[in-house]
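Comment thread on ticket #2218

A.B. wrote:
> Attaching the input chain for the structure job we discussed in standup.
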Amino acid sequence: MITLKVKDRDGETHSVEARVGDTLMETLRNFHWGVAAICGGMCSCATCHVYLAPEDMGRFPEPDVDEEDLVDMLEFGRDGASRLSCQLALDTRHDGLAVELAPEE
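C.D. wrote:
> Ran it. Output below, let me know if you need it in another format.
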């Protein structure tokens, strides 16, 4: 298990345990304040949009073209720290990761 720092849409920060091997989306959708994850992780809806802290952006591989396209289609709330949590597989190097839930579309 690893620990994540998650800022919800109300600005409250939660310390959350996550399983190594899960995606960030799988962890976040378990909370009432978490992400909707409507497509279940198929990278087709962007309802798992999050922001990574600038210092954590390099802890994951660059987004692929499908993720980039979905983020580009968001009407508001996207920025240079935007990622889809369904595309972010967690491992031990992500212990302490800081993430913020993006506004709902």
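A.B. wrote:
> Thanks. Noting for the ticket: The mean pLDDT is 93.
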